[in-house]
Amino acid sequence: KEPLIGLFVDGTVLNSGDGSSWEQAFKTLSEAVKVSKGEDIYVAAGTYKGKGNRLDLTDTSNIRFIGGYKKGELYKKDRTKLNDDEWAVLDGDNKDEVLVKIAGASKDIRFEGGFLFKDATDGAIQIIGEANKFIENISITDSRFENNTSNTGGA
């Protein structure tokens, strides 16, 4: 079995740790992004709402979010057929906010398996191009989008 190595996020922890394990997990996605140096970011199943879970990935590179794991799981597994309790839900809570903004010279950003983007009223994901800045290699795999709307563009 191949162990999970990287940073860990679990929205149910009382206080954020250093992200080095499930026991020391960050509480929000943005905390993991701030310290990431290219490590995988494992996001525990559960619902993520609020400011710390809205991601501004402007001029960001080499970020890979991996969902489909319950808190405490230690080894990699097939995440293509998940149970309902294994999804990491990025919930817009029907507020006029974007869940994920990718802009500037961003590249190599991936959401791999086990993410549900839902109830965002200004777009679940917005990718915003700028003059002389290139956005490259953005991927979202084995994830779902539900009940999202946008008046300004976005998924």
What does the secondary structure layout of this molecule look like, with pairings?
Blueprint: E1 7-9, H1 29-35, E2 40-44, E3 46-48, E4 55-56, E5 61-69, E6 88-91, E7 100-103, E8 107-112, E9 115-118, E10 125-128, E11 136-141, E12 144-146
Parallel strand pairs: 1-2, 2-5, 3-6, 4-7, 5-8, 6-9, 7-10, 8-11, 9-12
Task: Give an overview of the whole structure.
The chain is mainly beta and 155 residues long. 5% of the residues lie in helices and 34% in strands. The strands form 3 sheets. The chain has a 5-stranded parallel sheet, with helices on one face. A 4-stranded parallel sheet has the order 3-6-9-12, with no helix packed on it.
Summarize the structure.
By secondary structure, the protein is mainly β. The chain contains 1 helix and 12 strands.
The main sheet orders its strands as 1-2-5-8-11
The helical percent reads under 10%
SSE pattern: EHEEEEEEEEEEE
Largest sheet features: 5 strands, parallel
What is the total tally of β strands? 12
C-alpha termini separation: 36 Å
Q: What is the overall pLDDT average? A: 93
- The poorly predicted ranges are none
Give the class from helix and strand content and strand pairing.
mainly beta
Strand content: 25-35%
Radius of gyration from CA coordinates: 15 Å
Q: How many helices does DSSP assign?
A: 1
Shape: globular
Key attributes of the depicted protein:
5-stranded parallel β-sheet, 4-stranded parallel β-sheet, 1 helix, 155 residues, mainly beta, globular
